[in-house]
Amino acid sequence: MTRIMTPGPTQVPEPVRIARSLPCGNPDLDETFADEYRDTCRLISRLLDTENETLILSGEGILGLEAACASLTEPGDRVLVLDNGIYGKGFADFVSMYGGVPVLYTRDMRHALKADELADYLEKDHNFKYATLVHCDTPSGMLNPVEELCPLLKKYGILTVVDSVSGMFGNRLSVDDAQIDLLCGGSQKAVSAPPGLTFVTLSDAAKKAMHERKTPIASFYANLCTFDGYYEKKWFPYTMPGSDIKGLRAAMDLIAADPELYDRHHRIAEATRRTLTDAGLTLYPLDGYSDTVTVFEVPEGTTDTAILAGIREQGLMLAGSFDVLAGKVIRIGHMGANANDADMEDVMAALDHTLRALGVPLKKDLLATYKDYANANCEK
Ligand SMILES: *Cc1c(COP(=O)(O)O)cnc(C)c1O
């Protein structure tokens, strides 16, 4: 099978696959399931450094984003949509769908959002119920400093909704320090469980906003209040996917037992960026580099499909991108279980071979250069 080195889904380690194959009872009738669910939620909160409650929802990462907007938005609410990437902009659709008025704060996709610029903007206009932000905008590999941006919004009482589906557990994030009211995560990025689950952390302020609405939430599946009191009542709004949750628990246990997690992501990401730029390739972001995904421009004279096909022939899968970046860039996902030197060395060898075969001049041998940087344990 092709080894996936994509920015989600990622490879799934054996303990996660084994956990998913264990017998599981009836989540609706087995009282122990509520404990299993709650313990997994509590572990996630702890790993994200927050006192806030976590809820795991059955559905892909997108469900978390939609549930946030469905549960918070009332008709006519102004919502500030921080947009310097494809997911950033995408939040506007969910806001509109639930009757809100998205106000786009649009900035250059090749730069991270800047705290001082946002502060200036908010001085003039801060009448927003909540704001949406993307920690790592995966299609462009852009990492935004949400830990600087959210406190600026909170100063004006604006609730903060952050999509860190592809950032969390690759780039360190403390939900409480960053003052994030509603954080969205997913199972299939750095968490390294298969796609199928999303989870959210909810502050008291976010819960209060949901409970004090004047209009009902226009959804059942995306209504976060349906989980109210689940533990006491031993009652979930729909049958929970027991095997998926066992797998997620195993993935979180691996994260909890990995003291090198963030250092390894950073070292591998840094070695990858340096290797590609030394060889003459161009990274898409000009700053704000994520430690979970590296995005570089398709070199002149070839295409993304030709590069991806060449890589596939060598048993590996990288990704192109989509929307405004379709055909323009290649993405290497070095997050979660993908973040290991052995796989990254294979990626570099395959990329070197493929690009040269396509007539792309490279100033360095990608594999040798990567090994030098990775071994040098490069600083910063
Ligand atoms: C992957 C991802 C999601 C979830 O998208 P899916 O299509 O459900 O996988 C949401 N936000 C970001 C930034 C992502 O990278």
What is the N-to-C order of secondary-structure elements (H for helix, E for strand)? EHHEHEHEHEEEHEHEEHHHHEHEEHH
Put simply, the count of helices is: 14
Q: What spatial order of strands do you see in the largest sheet?
A: 2-10-9-8-5-3-4
Number of strands: 13
User: How many domain modules?
Assistant: 2
Pfam families: Aminotran_5
Cofactor: pyridoxal 5'-phosphate
Protein name: Alanine--glyoxylate aminotransferase family protein
Modified residues (N6-(pyridoxal phosphate)lysine): 189
Helices and strands in order, then pairings?
Layout lengths: L2 E2 L9 H8 L10 H16 L5 E6 L2 H12 L5 E6 L2 H12 L3 E6 L8 H10 L5 E5 L1 E2 L4 E2 L2 H9 L4 E5 L11 H4 L3 E5 L10 E6 L1 H8 L18 H4 L8 H15 L4 H18 L14 E5 L6 H10 L2 E2 L11 E5 L7 H17 L8 H10 L5
Helix pairs in contact: 1-10, 2-10, 3-4, 5-6, 11-14, 13-14
The structure holds pyridoxal-5'-phosphate.
Descriptive report:
The structure is a single chain. By secondary structure, this protein is of the alpha/beta class. It is built from 14 helices and 13 strands. The strands form four sheets. A seven-stranded mixed beta sheet has the order 2-10-9-8-5-3-4, sandwiched between helices. The longest helix is centred in the C-terminal third of the chain and has 18 residues. It has two domains: 245 residues, Type I PLP-dependent aspartate aminotransferase-like (Major domain) (Aspartate Aminotransferase, domain 2, 3-Layer(aba) Sandwich); 119 residues, Aspartate Aminotransferase, domain 1 (Alpha-Beta Complex), CATH 3.90.1150.10. Bound molecules: pyridoxal-5'-phosphate. Pyridoxal-5'-phosphate binds next to helix 3.
